[in-house]
Amino acid sequence: MTAARTVVVHPDAEGLAVTTGARLLLHVLDAQAVRSPVHVVLTGGTVGIRLLAEASRNPLRDLVDWSDVHVWWGDERFVTADDSDRNALQAREALLDALPLPPGNVHEMPAARPEDPSFGPDEAAAEHAAELARYAPAGAAAPVFDVVLLGMGPDMHVASLFPGHPARDAAGSPTVGVHSSPKPPPSRVSLTFEAINGAREVWVVAAGAEKAEAVAAGLAGDPVSSAAHVHGTERTLWLIDAAAAGRAAADG
3-state SS of 10-23? Predict the structure, then answer.
C-alpha cells in the first residue's frame, strides 16, 4: 500500500528546519499515544542535522517518553566510529546526547574496524540487518518504522541509494553495503527501498536551489530519481523550502 503524497513548502531553510524539528517531536508524541515502542529513522546532511538541533531547543522534547523511542538511521558512512563524517556522531552532538535515551535504544549502523580489515560494508550491513530483525514483527525483516526521514542530494539520491548504482537494486534484505559510492566516502551502509517503504510515514526533506531539479524530478516520478521510489504506507511528505521547490512549485 502506498500513501498519497503531500508537498509542504516552507519559505526558507531555517523555517524548514524549525518546523520539521517540531513536526518530528509532535509525531513521536502522537505515535506514543497509540502504540509502543516508537521507531524513528534519522537522516544526516545539513538539513537533517539542523532540524535535530532545532528539536533540541524545542520544549516539546521534554514531553516525549524517550525510554519508549528507538532511533535508527537511513544510511551511514562506513568510517570509524569517531569520524566526524558519521551521521550518528553528528546526530548525537545535535540532539541525542541531550536526551534521556537508553543506550540500547540507539541503533547505530556498524562502523569501520581498522583492526579487522575483513569487516567491510557488506559485513556491516549483515550485522545491522540482524539488529533490525531483533525488533521486527514476526515474519518481517525490520521494525515498522513510525517515520523515516530522508535527505535528498542534487543527484537525486536518498539514503545511500544512488541513481544508477547497483546497491539501489538490492532486494531481499533491509540493508545493503555500498561500494564505490559516487559521493565520498566511497563505502557506506544503507537501508534498502524495502525497509524504507515499509514505514508508516516517509518524509523527504530538501532545501536550497541546488536541489530544485532533483525535487522536480522526484515529484514528477522520474524513474532515475531514487527519491521518486520512496513512500510511506500511511503518509508520504515532501518537506522543502521555496528555493528547492523551484520548478516543482510550477509543476504542482
Answer: ECCHHHHHHHHHHH
Evaluate the omega torsion of the peptide bond into residue 166 and state whether it is cis, within 30 degrees of 0: no
CA 167, chain centre distance (Å): 17
Q: 40-99, pLDDT tens digit by residue?
A: 999 999 999 999 999 999 999 999 999 999 999 999 999 999 999 999 999 999 999 999
Determine the pLDDT at residue 72: 98
Give the residue-averaged pLDDT of 106-123.
Answer: 97
State how beta strands 235-241 and 201-206 pair. Answer: parallel
State the Cα torsion 228-146-81-161 to the nearest 10°: -10
pTM metric for this prediction: 0.95
pLDDT at 250 over 60: no
Checking DSSP bridges between strand 201-206 and strand 38-42, what pairing results, if any? unpaired
Closest CA to 205 of 20, 32, 66: 20
**What is the layout of strands, in order, in the sheet containing 201-206?**
5-10, 235-241, 201-206, 147-151, 38-42, 69-73
As beta bridge partners, residue 8 has: 239
Q: How far apart are CA 133 and CA 150, in angstroms?
A: 21
Torsion of CA 196, 198, 199, 202, to 10 degrees: 50
Distance, in Å, from the CA atom of 160 to the CA atom of 65, rounded to the nearest integer, reads: 30
pLDDT above 80: residue 252: no
CA distance 165 to 75: 15
